[in-house]
Amino acid sequence: MPKKQLTEGIIKKVIMGMFDSIVKGKQAKAKKQLDNDPKLKKLYANLDKSIDGIQDHLKQMKKGRSAKQAYDAVMKKYGG
Q1: What is the DSSP letter of 6?
Q2: pLDDT over threshold 70, residue 3
Q3: Residues 56-73: pLDDT tens digits?
Q4: Residue 70 CB contacts under 8 Å (≥ 6 apart), including other chains
């Protein structure tokens, strides 16, 4: 494997990790502001569930499952 691809992969992982931590930090701050609005709080809970479902689906697809198998596994876990 060429050295260029390794470097790009490492850089991509670092940047994605930083992006994820920033997003999670902003989500945590926004959740603290949700105490006064129960409807918005419920919508954020649904968003978190959807994000988890998407991440699980992508992980399963990386494991070599077909899109249908990955979808079925996520739907079984999170309902819907």
Answers
A1: H
A2: no
A3: 877 877 777 677 777 787
A4: 57, 60, 61
